[in-house]
Amino acid sequence: MEYEEDDFLMISGIQHFKFCRRQWALIHIEQQWAENVYTVVGELMHKKAHDPYLTEKRRDTIIARSLPVSSKSLGISGECDVVEFHKCEDGIKLHGHRGLYSIYPIEYKKGKPKVTDEDKLQLAAQALCLEEMFSAKVPEGAIFYGETRRREVVEITEKLREEVAQMFREMHKYYGRRYTPKVKYSKSCNACSLKEICLPKLGKSVSVKTYITQMLQEEE
């Protein structure tokens, strides 16, 4: 099955979906968004990585920034922060360049490596797009973290590939139905930029009086 471009979902949405399906639906289906310190810092990190007018060459490496990518089989599109094309003996041809090149995507993130896999899943989704676009294999990539100032190498395993495909299939089902999942409150809700829009504690079937009391206690 191939999706039409009008039905493409954002690659970056896999971050929201992994964190919270309701958050993803509020942003990508209901078009609601709110900034907090975490989203602002993340945006500044990407601005440093992105320069759509810049493609540079360093010896045997070509560096492309803000590279648009998509996949008809997954029904997704977006941009890679950085893609490095390394000269090699067994790779792909690039228009205007001699020799063959391997493909190496790099995603920029604030903070440090996470225990959960959302960053790896986003990178894997980009790798799958690149594989489809260039008819090539992308066995690994890297995530650069602003806090540690170093790259973390990520192998694009079959497990990651399968999870990416499954999550986007689920996203397309939600999007097609315009369905927003019910709230499931957890401690992670406190760091969510949509906390005041989602009102997660209301989903715990408490009275209005109890909810207002809880909110006043948090503000003290």
Give an overview in words.
By secondary structure, the protein is of the alpha/beta class. The chain contains seven helices and seven strands; from the N terminus they run βαααββββαββααα. The protein has helices at residues 13-19, 21-28, 37-49, 118-134, 158-177, 195-198, 208-219; strands at residues 9-10, 55-58, 61-71, 76-88, 100-109, 140-145, 150-155. Strands 1, 2, 3, 4, 5, 6 and 7 form a seven-stranded mixed sheet that branches. Helix 1 runs antiparallel to helix 4 (118-134). The longest helix is centred in the last third of the chain and has 20 residues, at 158-177. The protein is globular and about 65 Å long. The N and C termini lie far apart (54 Å). The model is unreliable at 36-41 (pLDDT under 50).
Helicity level: 25-40%
What is the overall silhouette?
globular
SSE ordering: EHHHEEEEHEEHHH
The major sheet is characterized as: 7 strands, mixed
| SS strand fraction | 15-25%
Query: How many beta-strand elements?
Result: 7
Tell me the structural class.
alpha/beta
Low-confidence parts: 36-41
The helix count comes to 7
Radius of gyration: 20 Å
Q: Estimate the mean pLDDT confidence.
A: 85
Gap between N and C termini, in Å?
A: 54 Å
Keywords: Antiviral defense, Exonuclease, Hydrolase, Iron, Iron-sulfur, Manganese, Metal-binding, Nuclease
Domain DUF83: 12-199
Cofactor: Mg(2+); Mn(2+); [4Fe-4S] cluster; iron-sulfur cluster
EC number: 3.1.12.1
